[in-house]
Each structure stands twice: as structure tokens, then as C-alpha cells.
Design brief:
By secondary structure, this protein is α/β, with parallel strands linked by helices. It has a single domain (4-225), classed as Spore Coat Polysaccharide Biosynthesis Protein SpsA, Chain A (Alpha-Beta Complex). It is built from 8 helices and 7 strands; from the N terminus they run βαβαβαβαβαβααβα. The protein has helices at 17-26, 44-49, 68-78, 98-106, 127-144, 160-164, 175-185, 210-225; strands at 4-10, 31-37, 57-61, 83-86, 112-116, 156-159, 190-194. A 7-stranded mixed sheet has the order 3-2-1-4-6-5-7, sandwiched between helices. Helix 5 (127-144) packs parallel to helix 8 (210-225) and helix 7 (175-185) packs parallel to helix 8 (210-225). The longest helix has 18 residues, at 127-144. The protein is globular and about 50 Å long. It starts with a strand and ends with a helix.
């Protein structure tokens, strides 16, 4: 059994997909890598299809673009590792931080660990994205009586039984608030650790918009009172 399952949702990331795969492989942890191509149309799928078969690497192809949540759901169902982490393919997050994330899980303190971009070294962020993130994190803390600093972080690592025990309904970026809400409602032991972050702006291909913030707001409210 691998120590870690790395789930990589990919959508139109031909410029970075090979590099993120190289960085993941370089981390000295026994792992499996589960790439889920979410209907890419920019040549990413062709790059993945040209990769030779390799132990510890799975590549799944969604028939059409369904969203990050749908891709993560596909990857989670295939995971065999003791722990599971989400990894975006755009190079904003550094796989070298896996060892920081995994420490509270290895020593039995945590059931889930979030990597906070605001506790560690990070590129100066876009103001409106920063403000939206802070507002959503504040709402999370108020609704679920907690003290997170970065609810929307990609770097979420779990015991496999925890994430596979959550029914992920979201298909898009509202995956993040849904998973967080369900972790907190089930009273799982959640830790935060500092991570590095090299954020992209919209000219670099950043995909999250204000509409995703509105959906995340509604998602937090919805799952406070229902499954």
C-alpha cells in the first residue's frame, strides 16, 4: 500500500502538467499519482496519452469537462494510499510541502490537514481574491465554530477513510467549502500548517472568478443545515 495518494485534477494545463508530475515524483514519499483529465481541449490530454505506462501512475479521462469537484470525486474513488492529498496542476502549490502536511497525520494527531497560504511564504496575492478568500474563511469560522485561516486552499490532506467517507456532491470549485463543511460537522481533527504559495493571475490562466465565490458562499450555508 502506498503511503500517499496524490490526486491531480487537470483541465487545459499543457504548459505545466509535465512539470507538476516531475515535482510530485521527486518527493521522497511512497506514493501513487492519480491524474484525472477533465476533458482538456488544449493538448493536455494528448500529452498524458503519450506518457509511457508507469507503476504508481494512473491516468483517468473524463468524457467531458465536468469541473474540479467531479475530477476529485473520480480520483478519490481510486485512491489506495494511507493518506490522500489534492494537488492542482498549475504550479501554484509546491509538492515539497507534502512532508509538512503529512506530519500531523503520521503522528496520529490529525484526521485532516490543510496547508495555509497565509501562514507561510507566498507571492503577493490579488487583492479581490484575497478579500473573497478571507470573507469565505470568516463565514466558515462563524458557521462551524472554528478558526481556520485558509478554507479555500487546494492543499488538503486526509486519512483515506475520512475523505472516502464523505459523499462529494460538488462538481466545480465549490468542492472546497463542501469538503470543509463536512469535515467540521463530523468533528474530525483538523490541523493547519504553513505552506509556500506562488499564485497565478488571470493572464497566467487563473480560472477562479467572483462567481465561484458566490457559489462557495451558498455552499457553506447549505451544508451547515443539510448533508
Amino acid at each position: 500500500m502506498p503511503e500517499l495518494s496524490v490526486i491531480v485534477p487537470v483541465y487545459n494545463e499543457k504548459a505545466t502538467v509535465e512539470e507538476i508530475l516531475r515535482r510530485i515524483k521527486a518527493v521522497d514519499i511512497t506514493k501513487e499519482i492519480i491524474i484525472v483529465d477533465d476533458g482538456s481541449t488544449d493538448g493536455t490530454r494528448e500529452i498524458l496519452q503519450a506518457m509511457p505506462p508507469e507503476d504508481g501512475l494512473q491516468i483517468h479521462y473524463q468524457e467531458r469537462n465536468q469541473g474540479k469537484g467531479a475530477a476529485i470525486r473520480t480520483g478519490v474513488a481510486q485512491a489506495k494510499g494511507r493518506w490522500v492529498v489534492f494537488q492542482d496542476a498549475d504550479l501554484e502549490y509546491d509538492p515539497e510541502d507534502y512532508n509538512i502536511l503529512i506530519a500531523p497525520l503520521r503522528d496520529g494527531r490529525a484526521d485532516a490537514v490543510y496547508g495555509s497560504r497565509f501562514l507561510g511564504v507566498h507571492r503577493v496575492l490579488l487583492f479581490w481574491n484575497y478579500l473573497a478568500n478571507k470573507c469565505l474563511t470568516l463565514l466558515t469560522n462563524a458557521l462551524y465554530n472554528t478558526d481556520l485561516t485558509d478554507m479555500e486552499t487546494c492543499y488538503k490532506m486526509f486519512r483515506r477513510e475520512v475523505i472516502q467517507g464523505i459523499r462529494i456532491r460538488s462538481n466545480s470549485f465549490n468542492l472546497e467549502p463542501e469538503v470543509t463543511a463536512k469535515i467540521l460537522k463530523k468533528k474530525w481533527r483538523l490541523y493547519e500548517v504553513p505552506i509556500s504559495y506562488s499564485g497565478r493571475d488571470y493572464s497566467d490562466g487563473k480560472k477562479i472568478t467572483w462567481k465561484d465565490g458566490v457559489i462557495a458562499f451558498w455552499t457553506l450555508l447549505k451544508y451547515r443545515f443539510m448533508d
